[in-house]
Write a structure and sequence with these properties.
Blueprint (H helix, E strand, L loop, with lengths): L2 E4 L6 H10 L4 E3 H11 L1 H11 L4 H10 L1 H22 L3 E3 L3 H4 L7 E6 L2 H12 L3 H9 L4 H7 L2 E4 L6 H19 L1
Parallel strand pairs: 1-3, 1-4, 2-3, 4-5
Helix pairs in contact: 2-3, 2-5, 3-5, 4-5
């Protein structure tokens, strides 16, 4: 069974994935894979440079935030490469902030969404990335609303800083094992 983990920027997906690793579960990180593939694939580098004019992170960020069309164009180059890399990885778990938006949801059987209150998410991103509230909101507006993602997911992990993450992960893993046995 393939499992996708998603959630908006600042929801704490990466933290949940680190906790899953404590349970012996390796999670494919789509963001890290995209960065690695951009660094190592001459074909991707050429395609992106032709679109953006540069492989510089700041230039790519400006390009992405400039318009929805730019975002879709760049994603049409990067996402297929990431999807192929995930399939080749042999891993069963995938982390992607834009699992539904990118179409990566088609590669998984079940989806887990990590949620957190809006202000908690904003604070986390400001502290982590050192960017302004306005910039965080720009990035958030490029992603689907948390409620829409939650409605499409099979499971939810609440990462509000108060709810016990470990207990939620144990319940999730128990439920996934139970579902896997039921489909055997």
């Amino acid at each position: 069974m393939k499992i996708g983990i998603t959630g908006g920027i600042g929801s704490g997906k990466s933290y949940v994935c680190r906790q899953l690793e404590r349970h012996g579960i390796s999670v494919y990180d789509c963001d890290a894979a995209a960065k690695r593939l951009i660094r190592t694939s001459p074909t991707l580098q050429q395609q992106i440079a032709a679109l953006v004019g540069s492989l510089d992170k700041a230039a790519m960020s400006r390009f992405l935030l400039a318009s929805e069309s730019n975002q879709q164009t760049l994603n049409a180059v990067i996402h297929p490469a990431v999807f192929r890399d995930f399939e080749a990885s042999g891993l069963a778990w995938m982390e992607s902030a834009i699992l539904f938006e990118s179409g990566a949801c088609q590669l998984v059987d079940k989806v887990v969404v990590v949620t957190a209150p809006l202000e908690v998410r904003i604070r986390r991103v400001i502290e982590r990335d050192g960017i302004t509230r306005e910039k965080v909101l720009q990035w958030m507006n490029r992603q689907w609303p948390q409620d829409e993602v939650k409605a499409r997911a099979d499971y939810e992990i609440v990462n509000d800083g108060q709810t016990d993450i470990d207990r939620q992960i144990e319940r999730l893993l128990h439920s996934l094992r139970r579902n896997a046995k039921a489909t055997e």
